[in-house]
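Example record

The entry below shows one chain as it appears in the dataset: sequence first, then structure tokens.
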Amino acid sequence: MFNVLMVNTNGQLGACWLQDRNTAFIAAGNHLCMFDLRSNSLIHSTPQSVYSKATDDINCMDMHSSGKYLTFCDDAGEVHVLDVRSNKPYVQFKQRHDNIASCVRFMSGNRPWELYSGGYDYMIHRWNFSNGKCMDTLSSQSEEAMSAAQSINPPFIHDLAVHSSGSTVYAGLGNGSIMIINEQKTKSRQRNSKRETSSVLELSAIPDAHLWSVNRL
């Protein structure tokens, strides 16, 4: 059995996400539509909810492991996190990409409040979506990322993937290389009666690069 989802907007379909057998999210233009698939109808033309506050066309989305939050990014360079229970923004991010934001991914494992976004400004941002702050920024034009490139195409970030361990992020670039971002924990320290463990990001690249853009990981 299959279902047909119809979105009545003028925008092009940008992304989709099947949360489970009963719920699907479809992005069309700057509209994000949630469909309930539990009816017996094969064609679903009326979404259960519509979120239309994205500034520009939505390019990518990802669901949090808890099922409570959906993140997505748009052509205006903005990253959003939606509380799917209330259909309202969960947080207002304090920065954005300087060009199209093309991909976004929640982290997994022991970093449930982090997400990564990549864009056509050659930047990868690491966010804490509990407060909307950018924790780190990496450039795909760095020496480590460019060392494996075999293509003359610019190193736009086309896609992101997160390892199940939650400590490694992969980025597919327009120049055919793949960036590898590893979190390295540093020594913990005592601060205000609490012991805190900081971390730094280490960047490397896969030497056997693709000849063309890495659009999917």
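Notes for this example: The helical segments are 143-146. The longest helix spans residues 143-146.
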